[in-house]
Amino acid sequence: MSSEVTAVADILAAARGVFPAPDGSTTILPQPNARDAGVLSFTAHSVVFLNEDPEWIRAELAVASTDPLVASMTPPFLAALAARTGRYVNTIDLLTVADALPGDPGIGLREIDDPEHPRVARALKYRDEVRVWAADGGVLILGRGVAGRMEAAIEVEEGARHRGLGRALATAARMLTPDPVVWAQQSPGNARSVRVFQAAGYRPVGAEALLVAR
To answer: InterPro entries given for it (predicted)?
Structure first.
């Protein structure tokens, strides 16, 4: 099933299996807010959300690659966006989503209610409504990112790895999200993180490259 993308918030329909038409095209949209800008890539369809001239964006896509299926995620195109905007791209992430779950995480999470805490302060640069929980050996972060979607991120200390804590934290996010679904991004090269989130029930829906303000 496919659906026309008319606003960045339409990406949330991917959680229900509703994707842009796989026709090899690129949709260009305005940013949902001043903070969030970037590129989304689905099966045979890309979405660029950026407050820039659409004609310039399409010209850069044509220069970046002769293959429209990959042009939006090529280094030349992302570098052109970064140079044009003065922003930078952290990485190209795998974008995943999971349905909310009932129940209690049961792993002794302790919420950190301190805006000066390093993990809280860092999360607030990328998300709104941030909440952070600590567990023995790990941290779970929830907050609203692109288009208001609820996003999860986890960290596991080196000494606490290989014990199932990462999977438990990723699963806990599904129990703590106030929304019907929770999203998470993983760098494809971080195979351990990809495996953890997929083991916790997160399914891949696309790729994402965010343009981060300096």
So the answer is: Acyl_CoA_acyltransferase
